[in-house]
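#struct-help
A.M.: can someone run this one for me? Single chain, 277 residues.
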Amino acid sequence: MAEETSGNSAGSRRTVASKVPSAHNTLRILQLLAAKKAPIPASRIADELGLPRSSIYDLLGVMEAQGFVTHLPSQGRYGLGVDAREVSSAYSQDEPLSRVGRPLLARLAQATGKSAHLSVLHGRDIRYLFEEPAKSQPSFISAVGMRLPSHLTATGRAILAAAPRAHVRALYPNAAAFAAPQQASLPITKYQTLSSELNLVSQRGYAAEYGRTIPGFGSIAVAVKDQHGWPTAAIAVTYVEESFPVPLQQALAETIKRTAFELSRRIHGPWPTLVAS
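D.P.: on it. Structure tokens below:
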């Protein structure tokens, strides 16, 4: 009976797909791009899905216009767009991350004696989901959903550093993308500077900053990745000490990495390469 039901279900899906092939193929393209670690040429999309190249270009054009696909003309490649990732985050990030992440971050705050918070990428901004304050520590997040420019925050750079550079470049195509709040100090104003900082984050395995977004506050952050290696969130610990030696930063980062890996494992499964070493 189970096999018959399964067969009928598969048959129903094929019937629906045959009635609306464009919608079916659009979803197939999104699924394919979501599984790739970097943008790919349209010809490869056509080959892997067994579709005519003319149809692929038509579909990609519509998806790009709607923000679900990013086109990199200089490379002739396509990747997931900002809108596709935001739709994904509404289901696969925010609710599961908040539910599963709270007890882990509460444990992290208790172990480090510093407040911890969880955030996701929202366009070019970081959106903070929640904070777990430590005793006798000031609050960093003034309100749930607070947003800050990702290139100025440790959490944002942790996520950007774990993403393919082509996607980062698509998010920051020109100088206007680097607009920053007036209170931000030493803002990053061009892609070359951002790329250098992201390379440093990748090398040491965590992002760090002090006073760049909020005076008197510093943060150390590590990305949380999904089963495909895409960064879906970042965990950060905030501190108020102006002088925070590198050895202490590294020790704190290792503790955050363990929490980020555990959150990844609980949400996405036991993937051994989820968190950069």
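A.M.: thanks! The two ends are 48 Å apart (CA to CA).
D.P.: also worth noting: The CA atoms of residues 220 and 249 lie 7 Å apart.
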